[in-house]
Please model this.
Amino acid sequence: MKPDDSTLSFEQALAQLSELVKKMESGALPLADSVKAYEQGMKLKTYLEQVLKEAELKIEQLKPCDK
Model:
């Protein structure tokens, strides 16, 4: 699942997630905004995990066989 902006790079998504976490940890967000931030954060987390998994698979494919 990709975040709402499908053009985000891994680094941009990670920066957005970090910013959301900072805002939520500050306690300055109203409850409704915190819920929205949490939902967006979960989308970003899922996207980041997917990108990392794809990169890991590519690296595994590029490794030479040990035989």
